[in-house]
Design brief:
Length: 359
């Protein structure tokens, strides 16, 4: 029995679409949305109809018939907190990401697009390892303010996929190991997997600065900035999420550009690069105390893990903790497809989010 899956992964500037027959990717396409394309839309979610149409055109262009899909898989966005793994898409999930998302992100539209196609196909739509996966244990949630809790929210899909793939390749049982998985892309998340769960993590609002994000900042200075320069919440959020890190200091989000600057003798670029590597290492070290330092492996993944200069700089600082292993790039489309294949093959179960969404 073969399963044919359509996989949909919307990002801020692209929508990735792929078709799989079992584990074989038939094709993948990244539809680019230029700033001009996105300009007419006031809010990110307003792009839903446009992106849905483009996904439909995409699989039709590749000659795929909707009736042949056995499942449609969506990147899970910022729905209410969920556990790792698969969820069936339902109206409650779609509405929560539409009307009450934990934060704004293009992935919030994925479930609605998937459900639209799944209805046409007469099959189910699923999410897998959503951004909203939160398996953080109690003690790690506590902050010094009663009304502010820490939470698990980040690049869970790629962090978990790196661990699953690394353990498969090395014949390890992830349930026996403590593994630090660090996604280093446009944003950075540092996650600690223990007994197969992400028990603690540091995401883009608390952790290292990254190519485009500010990372954690001194709270009192953030208060000044909100009152004095960015009284508008959306503008402040955009500033932290899209205009931080390399972008703020060096005017690019591309690590390869930064490396060229360094090669050309730019000492400021070198300082900022070193500071990012230091910040990544420091946040890795921070989580090690959760398991009394007993870390088995540190996995570096995401686009920036292709950089020898960066991975070496991090390894120099954290190599004493545990062996550093590289799983460069992100295989989000594979991870989404393979996760749902495990469900269809009876190896994992899909859960459902239940609730009533007030619009
Ligand atoms: N071969 C490479 N060498 C160095 N940096 C790279 C390489 N490929 C991608 N990157 C960097 O990785 C970052 C993007 O990572 P990626 O995981 O693709 O991002 P996203 O989180 O947006 O999916 C960019 O800063 C990019 O310059
Ligand atoms: C940290 C939440 C997920 C996220 O921001 O993803 P991208 O870095 O891919 O935008």
């Amino acid at each position: 029995m073969f399963y044919k899956l359509l996989v949909i992964n919307p990002g801020s500037t692209s929508t990735k679409v792929a078709v799989y027959v079992d584990k074989e990717q038939q094709w993948v396409e990244s539809i680019t949305h230029s700033p001009e394309d996105l300009k007419p839309f006031k809010d990110v979610y307003d792009q839903l109809d446009m992106r849905t149409e483009m996904v439909t055109e995409c699989y039709e262009k590749h000659g795929d018939k909707v009736a042949d899909f056995d499942a449609v898989v969506a990147r899970g966005g910022l729905m209410p907190p969920v556990h790792a793994g698969a969820y069936e898409v339902n109206q409650y999930m779609i509405d929560m990401m539409h009307y009450h998302p934990q934060n704004v992100h293009a992935s919030n539209m994925a479930a609605a697009i998937a459900e639209h196609v799944a209805e046409l196909a007469g099959c189910k739509a699923y999410t897998y390892d959503a951004v909203a996966v939160d398996e953080m244990e109690g003690i790690y949630r506590i902050t010094g303010l009663k009304e502010i809790e820490r939470y698990g929210r980040g690049h869970n899909l790629n962090m978990r996929a790196a661990v699953i793939n690394f353990c498969e390749q090395n014949n390890l049982d992830m349930k026996d190991k403590n593994i630090m998985s660090v996604h280093m892309g446009g944003g950075i998340s540092v996650g600690l997997l223990s007994k197969g769960k992400i028990i603690d993590m540091i995401s883009d609002d608390e952790g290292p600065f990254s190519p485009e994000r500010s990372g954690g900042l001194p709270a009192f200075r953030v208060i000044d900035l909100c009152y004095d320069e960015y009284p508008n919440k959306k503008a402040m959020m955009d500033h932290l999420k899209n205009e931080g890190g390399f972008m703020a200091h060096l005017g690019t989000t591309d690590l390869r550009d930064v490396e060229k600057m360094i090669d050309n003798g730019d000492e400021h670029a070198e300082l900022i690069f070193d500071a990012m590597a230091l910040n990544i290492a420091k946040n890795i070290a921070k989580l090690t105390v959760d398991v009394n330092g007993k870390i088995d492996y540190i996995l570096l993944t995401g686009g920036m893990a292709f950089s020898d200069r960066l991975t070496k700089a991090i390894e120099e600082r954290v190599g004493w903790i545990a062996p550093v292993k590289l799983m460069p790039g992100e295989k989000e489309m594979d991870s989404l497809a393979f996760g749902i294949l495990r469900v269809l093959n009876g190896k994992e179960e899909a859960d459902r989010l239940e609730g009533v969404c007030e619009k």
